[in-house]
Amino acid sequence: MIWGRLAPPATMGGMTASPWFASPDEAASRLHAAGYLPDPASATTSYLAGALEKPLLVEGPAGVGKTELAKAVARACGADLVRLQCYEGLDEARALYEWNYRKQLLRIQAAGGSETWEQAHDDIFAEEFLLARPLLTAIRRDEPTVLLIDEIDKADVEVEGLLLEVLSDFQVTIPELGTVTATRRPFVVLTSNATRELSEAVKRRCLYLHLDYPDVEREREIVTAQVPELDRHIASQLVETVARVRELELKKAPSIAESVDWARTLVALEIGDLDERAIAETLGVILKHRSDHERAVKELRLRS
Ligand SMILES: Nc1ncnc2c1ncn2[C@@H]1O[C@H](COP(=O)(O)OP(=O)(O)OP(=O)(O)O)[C@@H](O)[C@H]1O
Ligand SMILES: [Mg+2]
């Protein structure tokens, strides 16, 4: 996935300067310009991840901007994004590399048995027959790269073992070819919903950022930036209502993405005041479980 280049890396005396951030403040303003409104901790940790060349582990509930932070770093720094989406059953062949067996077979057939075992082996375990997957792709790139390892907690714990070499040494070992070391270290972001504990070995190699729901002030900024046509007064009502809903004991609290959807809904329905009735009619945009819906209707009415 290639992102637009907002801020191409500057050059200093012929040397290419780091494409990442020069300070926490600069990180905040460049992320802001790229459409991401960071809290101070996100800006500082993003700066540090670039300056220390350490992977950044971002943990938190669904929809608080974990994945978006990695995308925003790529946009803000004029880097390309390489994404490894994790899931149960993800293996080395999908994460690192695999050999193109069909092509290898064709090569062997084409040689027609005229080669010795050594010749055939050297022939087919060459670069031409290698299929690079996201981790290897990111390591080999010469251009500034953000490597997003998304939802690492969804992958089996063995995948974390695969990651260790990449996360600490920025290299990948391919037994038949040797070790590929990054010429230019990618900016690595791992995200997790914390559905399970990650291994200490992975955590030790990363900087850690916990993202949570924003306060009403920042959420209003995010919502109005994404839905500028939303009336200021309704924007305030919306974020305050969402904050109250999040305090209830729910199966799934509304995320920032759902607040933004709600804002779009209110604009589309031309709702001029987010009163009790308007809330009840549009609650399905932010709450997706029946029990949550019922609880919110009851509790919000009780309090109003
Ligand atoms: N700080 C922010 N600034 C601007 N937009 C944001 C911010 N945080 C979240 N968003 C918005 O919320 C949406 C959801 O964020 P994102 O997909 O990054 O969530 P997530 O934490 O990765 O969730 P999940 O765990 O479900 O993958 C984004 O598409 C973006 O529009
Ligand atoms: Mg995500």
TrEMBL record:
Signal peptide: none annotated. Gene3D superfamilies: P-loop containing nucleotide triphosphate hydrolases (3.40.50.300). Residues 52-217 form the AAA+ ATPase domain. It holds the Pfam family AAA. This is MoxR family ATPase. It comes from Nocardioides marinquilinus.
